[in-house]
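Priority: low. Protein: Nitrogenase protein alpha chain. Input follows.
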Amino acid sequence: MPHHRFECSECIPEREKHAVVKGPGEDLTDALPLGYLNTIPGTISERGCAYCGAKHVIGTPMKDVIHISHGPVGCTYDTWQTKRYISDNDNFQLKNTFATDVKEKHIVFGAEKLLKQNIIEAFKAFPDIKRMTIYQTCATALIGDDIGAVADEVMEEMPDVDIFVCNSPGFAGPSQSGGHHKINIAWVKNKVGTVEPEIYSDYVINYVGEYNIQGDQEVMQDYFKRMGIQVLSTFTGNGSYDDLRAMHKAHLNVLECARSAEYICNELRVKYNIPRLDIDGFGFEPLSSSLRKIGIFFGIEDRAQAIIDEETARWKPELEWYKERLKGKKVCLWPGGSKLWHWANVIHEEMGLEVVSVYTKFGHQGDMEKGIARCEEGALAIDDPNELEGLEAMEKLKPDVIFTGKRPGEVAKKVRVPYLNAHAYHNGPYKGYEGWVRFARDIYNAIYSPIHQLSGIDISKDEIATDKGFSTQRLVSDANLPEEVKNSETLRQYTGGFDSVSKLRNKTYPYLEQRAASVEA
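Result:
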């Protein structure tokens, strides 16, 4: 197991132990970099803080809640709208963000009066919303504001409202994961068991660690509904505050993202004897195995198998089409926490992609262990990389595409490496059978995009033919374009939507194959 020293980090020798190349036949005792430690000074980490992990990842997806940050306005702004946590109440939590906007004078004299004033103003501004979560930040934690006391005072004066306090300032852990833990434990301790739900099914679950990114939760809920399962609450995507107070009545906790929400499942098992079942909604085989496990638990595996058979027959041919064209393409898998290992092996097995690097900015050692175990030999595993290390890795590995967040993704585009948003997706949802094909479609489009090919031209020195149009112009005027696609309305759909490609797949695939071959050449 050779540790990997980045040239840009030679002046920080400690960084060498945070990057490892997985060698032939090595196990995790040999190929595991140091991780989930305090950031080394001088590395200019791009990590999020514990406050971000609590509010942005876990709390904000709750739909019928005023999410207010007690601190400077920059904290709430940084955690607003960067993920697509959609909800069925007109996306209230995406359209609105709240902060007490603490200033220097409040740091000196205290900000509890300001907090109370803001709470009351927020409830009056949105009279239909009766629930609130208050998030502590570094500034108000350091001056010692008693947020809980203020919340209790408001609830006494306004008995129709309920307030949850999350004490998770940015310094509460080495990364976002510290905030995950804080809000998980606080919710079980302070809110679970305070509402009694209506039970209408013999099979009742909490869907935990699911944040409804571009509709992921809705896809999975459809499968559960077809199996006759009642989803009591979703922690926390499109989740209702009061439904989440009733988590203690579920028969089973179905856990999707173990990185962010295993804590609450473990506490519910101890306190209410609710078993935990880990599942995976990404990829045909992992999803099928997950549905079978849930079916076996409740004794309804025949219902699960019926869904598996139907969905696989419908979508597997399309996945195979993309696999043929993605086979051997190199990927840097640089997502958040759980997708590191949710995707590491299945994109190789079901799409033919080669994972040449994995990293996590805020995951635990367990995330890296599972990710390294599932990726191929020769992969470069990095803990908490900075921008320069990411650039150096791309220069060395020359990936065809990277899966990461928006900030490192935009950096990759500057060096002409296409990226897909692993956090908020490009054109999700990606869960479910159709979603997995949609993911493959986005990968295909990223790699074979004519616009991306044009980005590789250096206009200062490369010859550009002036007697020929660009690839996109040829695409729409090509004489080989199928007749039915030449219709303007069909052409608009053909170039703009996944569903239209699905509808035309039998007739357009030969054309797409031809275009792919020309781009590859």
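The chain has four domains: 50-190, 204-308, 316-455, 471-520. The chain has a mean pLDDT of 87.
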